Amino acid sequence: MVDEDGQSSRTGVRVHTVDGPVGEPILVPEIEYDRRVIRANGRDIEEVPFAATATWTLAYDESLIVGASDRYRFRIIHPDGRTTVVERFWDPVPVTAAETDFWRRATLAAFRPADLSWNGENIPDHKLAYFGFQPAASGEISLMRHGPLPPATCTLEPEQMAAARDPADYLRCLFGEMIFDVFGRDGRYLGNVEGVPVVSRPFINGDTVVAVALDDAGTVMVKRYRLMLPGEEGRSP
Q1: β-pair partners for 27
Q2: Number of domains comprising the chain
Q3: Is residue 177 a contact partner of residue 193, using CB atoms and an 8 Å limit?
Q4: pTM reported for the whole predicted model
């Protein structure tokens, strides 16, 4: 990576406790991906809807999990320096014509009155392989993926997205309900959890996912989901 002064720079993460930072920063390796940008006021900004990003997080055991979200592939860099590469087949969720139009309008509204050189033509035709990692307290790693997006989950107009007062409204329009693909700390696929609402990041421990959910009336609830192992069907809240 190169900063605005032309100097080489690296992103790092660091462990923090209640007493402050511990140890040296852990450097995130550079990741190649399909970079799509909006040029606003002379600057390139990575805000294209459904476009890939470089994604990373630090697990509870201080493993660094890194990947590029335009492919179903990620690395687990263990504290002792070993690296585990995980790659799976995935069936991309298409971006519909209605979603493309919605997010083009929402993005243009968010950047006004900036000087833009973007018309929305580079919005991908499918959603990301994943949009983030969620480590579990017990050591597992979850990839958060887009599920099918029922239109009823989004109650905002495109032009209202940037000024949405309730972050949950924005997240429902962007993600609908998540799918979690769960892996062991050794990279072995364990199963998935489907239909987790995106209101806030869930807490995961073992085969249990605890998440905040809203019903149709907007009532906040805490729901528990169970890891669905290969061969099982459905989920049990």
Answers
A1: 12
A2: 1
A3: no
A4: 0.77
